[in-house]
Amino acid sequence: MKKEFDHERIKEAVRILIEELGDDPEREGLKDTPDRVARMFDEVFEGMRYTNDEIADMFNRCFEAEKSRDLVLVKDIEVFSHCEHHLALMYNMHCHVGYIPNGKVIGLSKIARICDMVSKRLQLQERICSDIAEIIQKVCGTEDVIVIVEGEHSCMTARGIKKGGAKTRTAAIRGLFDTDHELRNEVYNLLR
């Protein structure tokens, strides 16, 4: 994947955008905006620099837990992303990640870091779920993963239909969570 963004090209694109919107990119309040946007893109699109495999390698910090087959669930991990259809912000997003260990457990902060990195891409909410699930499976060596993401999309709340407060919930359900309905219901009950 592309490891570095070309700041000069981004700055030029932002200048053109400002002009096309009918403003002057040399105006005092906008003069440094192209540079600020280029630097912001480094941060908010950081995840675009890495494949799922690279993210898995980056956060592959696990501990031995040979006897543990109990549910691990981290909920309410706050993230934001940008939809690939409109480049619009997806906000008030929360990721809930559960898995059944298979000989090892991942450090809890690494789960949040994985969610954060996956979200820092041009995304679909459904893909955020499946990417997180895939990475957790790779890092933890388990097929038994559930990822639920809920959030609001400004492409729906601030434009178009303009339905503020509408939330989207998506889930990636793998392994036992797909076949064991009691286990899946336990997760949903814990999220209430």
What is this entry, summarized?
This protein is 41% helix and 25% strand. The chain is elongated and about 65 Å long.
Task: List the SSEs and their pairings.
Layout: H1 7-20, H2 33-44, H3 52-58, E1 62-65, E2 72-83, E3 89-99, E4 103-106, H4 108-119, E5 122-123, H5 125-140, E6 145-153, H6 154-157, E7 168-173, H7 176-179, H8 181-190
Give the tally of structural domains: 2
Provide the succession of SSEs.
HHHEEEEHEHEHEHH
Strand residue percentage: 25-35%
Shape: elongated
CATH superfamily of the largest domain: GTP cyclohydrolase I, C-terminal domain/NADPH-dependent 7-cyano-7-deazaguanine reductase, N-terminal domain
Classified by CATH, the class of the largest domain is Alpha Beta
Helix count equals 8
Straight-line distance between termini = 38 Å
Q: What is the count of β-strands? A: 7
- Provide the residue-averaged pLDDT: 95
Major β-sheet annotation? 5 strands, mixed
Strands ordered across the widest β-sheet: 5-2-3-6-7
Structural class: alpha+beta
- Can you give the helix content as a percent range? 40-55%
Model regions low in confidence, pLDDT < 50 over at least 5 residues? none
Our Rg estimate from Cα atoms comes to 19 Å
